Amino acid sequence: MAEQTLTPAAKGLGYAGLIPQFIALALVLQGGEFGYVALAAGFGYAAFIFSFLGGVWWGQSLASGRADAAAYLVAVLPSLLALALFLPWTFGWEWPGPALMFLAALIALSPLVDRWLDLGRQDFMRLRWHLSLGLGALTAALGIIGIEPV
């Protein structure tokens, strides 16, 4: 059996990180005056988490002492991509549905970067997949709803 390195608090707080997106989805589905605000908040939360992952990759790469320029380049991409996905909304273009769908896919696939960087133990990677697929699915649900005006 693989060594367990994550504490119950780390796991619990990790899963608790899905709660804001559940709330955003519930408010959007409920409709009413908070629907569009919840949709924007859901995008913002997903973008923040995606940017946070880039910071994690940067820190883990630095701590490993074996990272090259490619690892640092990959680590800054989440922030830049999140910003790029936000721009259509600021210009009043096709938003938020398409941006949410792209963000959902990027989040759901983000553990592949952890594997590429070879920075995660088995229990960490299991948690990363659970959280990334969970947040990706919730964000995709918001994106599907967001394709139609709220």
UniProtKB/TrEMBL annotation:
Transcription in keyword set: no
Transmembrane segments: 12-30, 36-58, 70-91, 97-117, 129-147
InterPro entries named in the record: DUF3429 (IPR021836)
Keyword terms of this UniProt record: Membrane, Transmembrane, Transmembrane helix
Source superkingdom: Bacteria
This protein's name: DUF3429 domain-containing protein
Organism this protein belongs to: Altererythrobacter rubellus
